[in-house]
Write a structure and sequence with these properties.
The chain has about 160 residues and is mainly beta. It has a single domain, classed as AOC barrel-like (Beta Barrel), CATH 2.40.350. Helices cover about 15% and strands about 55% of the residues. It is built from one helix and nine strands. The protein has an eight-stranded antiparallel beta barrel. Strand 7 (about 110-120) and strand 8 form a beta hairpin. The chain is globular and about 45 Å long.
């Protein structure tokens, strides 16, 4: 319930920002499905996930996440972890790279994060913006479903 409220609140804020941001900024909403992977994993701790995403504005393709670390939150008695990493979204017409940080509630298998666009190619060359994610780990512990909401401003 809390993740749905969080997602709705973020969407409202982003829609309000879109009204002032101009016509080159768009709100992208997508569902992402990933699995843990080892082939091509660039993570310094060996944690990578890859899969697919499908959303509006032609935002669909493959996703890849490489974790930098899993760090405990020092004063958090619930045992949640901070997980910085790099996400890459590849579409038929460009790639978007995100530097993100999530909080992972290990006992519940849920996570929420915020990311910043750091680079792009093709359609996303020169893009700026923010990406908000909420999701959960499947019961198998090897796959994830993530809701993605992004405010992306395209250069052209």
């Amino acid at each position: 319930m809390k993740s749905k409220v969080f997602t709705v609140a973020l969407l409202v804020v982003m829609l309000a920002q879109t009204a002032f941001a101009g016509s080159q900024c768009k709100t992208f909403v997508a569902e992402q499905r990933d699995n843990l992977i080892t082939n091509g994993c660039t993570s310094p701790i060996g944690f990578c996930a890859g899969g697919t995403f499908k959303g509006n504005h032609g935002f669909r393709g493959t996703s890849f996440f490489s974790a930098i670390s899993f760090d405990p939150i020092l004063s958090d008695v619930l045992g949640r972890l901070v997980v910085p990493g790099v996400s890459t979204y590849t579409t038929d017409d460009g790639t978007l790279t995100i530097s993100d940080v999530s909080v992972f509630d290990t006992p519940r298998g849920t996570f929420a994060g915020i990311g910043r666009v750091t680079s792009g190619t093709g359609r996303f060359a020169g893009a700026t913006g923010d990406v908000f994610t909420t999701g959960h780990v499947a019961p198998d512990g090897l796959s994830f479903t993530t809701d993605v909401t992004a405010e992306i401003c395209l250069a052209n």
